Amino acid sequence: MMDENSSSCIPFLIILPMATYLLRRSLQALLTLFAISIILFGLISSAPGGIMSAYAENTDMTPQDIARLRAKYGLDDPIPLRYAKWLGNTLRGDWGNSFVSKRPALDEIADRLPNTMLLMGVMLVVTLLIAVPLGILSAIKQYTWFDHVSTTLAFAGQSLPVFWFGLLLIIIFSVTLRGGDGKPLLPGSGMYTLGAPFSLLDRVKHLILPVAMLAFVSAAGYMRYLRSAMLDVIHEDYVRTARAKGLRERAVICKHALRNALIPLVTLVGLDLPSLFGGALFTETIFAWPGIGRLYFNAALKTDYPVVMAVLVIYSGLIILSSLLVDVLYAALDPRIRLA
User: Fold this and answer.
1) How many CA atoms lie within 13 A of 269 on its CB side?
2) For labelling alongside 198, which of 23, 90, 108, 157 has CA 20 to 30 A away?
C-alpha cells in the first residue's frame, strides 16, 4: 500500500514528462520557424523582377524615384543584412507596411481575419457533420450500396479541381437558376449584398456556395480516412470483447471503436486548423470573399512583399503549433501513446 507521500508524487511524475516534452518541442518549433523564415525571405528577395517590380508600370516614377525607394526599403543592402533588419523589426512587432495601401501588414491581416475565420469555421463544422457519420456508416455497412455510393462521391470530391467545381457552382446557382423575383438563386460573390442593410439571411446565402465547395472536397478526404480507420479497429479483439459482454452496438461503435479510429482524423483536422487563419486561396478568389486567402493572392500579384511575408510566416507558425497540438491530443485519445 502506498503512503501519503508516495501518492502525492504521482501527479508530479505525470506532469513532469509532459512539461519536458512541451519545452523540447517548443524549442524545436522556434528553430523550425526561424529556418522557414530564412527560406521564405530568401525566396521572396530572389523573385524575378524584384520588389520594385510593383512600380515598373508606373510611368510617373522616374529613375531617381526608384533609387530613393530602394534606399528607403534598404534594397541595396545584402540579403543577410536585410533579413537581420526584418527579423529585428518583426520581434519588436513591426511587420512592415503594405506597399499598396501603406498600412501596417498586421492591420491588413487583422481586417480580413474575421471574414476568413467565419468562412473556414463554418466549413469545418459542416465538413465534420458530413464526414464523420458517412465514414462510420460506410465502414459498418461495408460493400453495401450505401458504401459504394459514398465511396464514389468521396473519390469524386478528391478528384475534382477546386477552382473548376467553384465555377460550376456559380454557373448553376448564380447564373442559370433564378428565384421567383428573377434574381440569382444564390449569390456568387462577396459576403453580403452591397448597399443592403445587415441581414443574417443574406450572410447565410453568401456562405452557401463557398462552404459547399470547400466542404464537399474536404469531407471526401476526411470520410475516406475515417472509413479506413474504422475498418481497422472494428475487427480488433477489444471490440469483439465489448460485443461479447452484451453491450449495444451503438455503445460498441461510439465508445470503443470510434475513439481509436478518430486518431487519423484528429491528425488531418489538426493540420487543417491553420487554414482558419490562412483561408482558401482559390475559394476566396473565385467567390470574391474578402479574406486572408484573397489578400495573399492580391499581394502576390502586386509584389506586396511585406504582406506576403507576414501571411506566410504566421501561417507557417500556426502549422508548427498545430502539429504540436496533434501530438498532445494523441496521448489524450490513446493512453498507449506516451509523450517522449
Assistant:
1) 23
2) 108
Inside any domain, residue 211? yes
| Tally of structural domains, the chain | 1
- In the DSSP assignment, the letter for residue 171 is I
Q: Which triple of cell numbers denotes residue 10?
A: 504521482
Is there a domain that residue 340 lies in? no
Domain coverage including residue 153: 103-333
Tens digit of pLDDT for each residue in 252-301? Answer: 787 777 777 877 777 778 777 777 676 678 888 889 899 898 999 888 88
Give me the amino acid identity at 313: V
CATH of the domain at 146: 1.10.3720.10
Q: Which of 1-5, 74-78, 334-338 has the lowest mean pLDDT?
A: 1-5
pLDDT of residue 264: 76
82 is a domain residue: no
Amino acid in position 193? T
Q: Do you know the residue count of the chain?
A: 340
Rg from Cα positions in the chain = 25
The model carries a pTM of 0.80
Q: What is the pLDDT of residues 46-57, one digit of tens each?
A: 776 666 666 666
Q: Quick one: 234 exposed, middle or buried, by C-beta within 10 A (0-12, 13-18, 19+)?
A: buried
Residue 77 CB contacts under 8 Å (≥ 6 apart), including other chains: 85
Q: How many degrees, rounded to 5, is the angle at CA 202 between CA 198 and CA 215? A: 130
